[in-house]
Amino acid sequence: MKFPVLRVPPLQDLPAPAGLATLASFRHESRPAAQVGIEGSRRTPCDGLGGYREPEPGLRLSTRPAHGVRGLPFDAMSPAPVYKFGKIPKHVAIIMDGNGRWAKAKSMIRVQGHRAGAESVRDVVKAAGEFGVKYLTLYAFSVENWKRPKGEVSTLMGLLRNFLRDELPELMKNNVRLQAIGRLSDLPENVRDQLHECIRATRENTGLILILALSYSGRVEIIEAVHSIMREIKLGHLDSAQIDEQMFNHHLYTRYYPDPDLLIRTSGEMRLSNFLLWQLSYTEIYVTPTLWPDFRRQHFAEALIDYGKRQRRFGLL
Ligand code: FPP
To answer: What is the bridge-based pairing of β-strands 91-95 and 34-37?
Structure first.
């Protein structure tokens, strides 16, 4: 028996479903190694940024004197560090953890940790674009986070709304396209409106794709995918024999994005916390003890340098 082929419309024609905004450009290019300066004016051309220069074979860290940030390479004669990456992950996902502990260690209240964490978001988003990362997914709010004290939840929602409002000019300047995954209908209306405004305003941007995971749960995402497949079967658009990994993938919030190459988790915790459970199957994991509010571009660069040294095997020899 011949089954109908699952048709996926061109990305730009897709409506934005509840949990997902559409994405116009989706490329599966492999990203070569890059050497990237931190300040825009000192940036060495790399993939997607107008040209590419091959680094010396086998050389990942600069041999020039290094000081400042935990042995990271940089040109001692220049005010801006220059990082050398073995290869750049196309998609980086981050579990931003440790805001509460950061605040506690400073005798502050938890929400001050979240405020400081929003600064790290700004810094890392800018760095990711400059380093040539194509997709950056940030776990900003989980389905479980709704169970936190009311005051903390409303502060987080306020921070999110302010971030979306205040950061729009910066996202435009840096050519960042915003997307979101999760149960977006759970968000307060003013946050949702700001989110959709930001997604709409940045839709033509061609640089970094920043994906905010909001009211997100990996298990809920998988269950929603199962429901979506069952609906298609009931409607006669699909036969159960057609269910395979690729088809299942088409029913996830993340259907337009490649799986993450690198997962970063801050604050030293060794768990996935219900984040991208399907998508992280072959992702490289980097856990740092640094608390999220302290995590800035140099720590992000350190994670990318570590990734560049890894041999990915995808279950093969
Ligand atoms: C985990 O730290 C962090 C969160 C639940 C929220 C992350 C939010 C931000 C970084 C700020 C706002 C985000 C954006 C996108 C502007 P935790 O509170 O669980 O820390 P703890 O484990 O030390 O208590």
So the answer is: unpaired
The domain limits of the chain are: 5-308
User: Could you give phi then psi for residue 180, rounded to 5 degrees?
Assistant: -145, 145
Yes or no: say if 161 and 191 are a contact pair by the CB < 8 Å rule: yes
CB 177 within 8 A of CB 208: yes
What are the structure tokens assigned to 204, written together? 């033509």
With a Cβ cut-off of 6 Å, ligand 1 is lined by 96-101, 114, 117-118, 121, 138, 140, 145, 156, 159-160, 163, 212, 267, 292
pLDDT classification of 79: cutoffs 50, 70, 90: low
CA distance 315 to 317: 7
CATH number of 5-308: 3.40.1180.10
Find, among 79, 83, 118, the residue nearest to 102 by Cα. Answer: 118
Q: What three-state secondary structure class fits 139?
A: strand
Contacts of 4 (CB under 8 A, 6+ apart): 237, 238, 239
> What is this structure's pTM?
0.80
Between the CA of 106 and the centroid of ligand 1 the distance, in Å, is: 16
Per residue in 279-306, pLDDT (tens digit) is: 999 999 999 999 999 999 999 999 999 9
112-159 confidence digits (pLDDT tens): 999 999 999 999 999 999 999 999 999 999 999 999 999 999 999 999
Sequence-distant (≥ 6) Cβ neighbours of residue 178 within 8 angstroms: 21, 164, 171, 195, 198, 199, 202, 210, 212
Residue 109: which of 164, 160, 149 has the closest Cα? 149
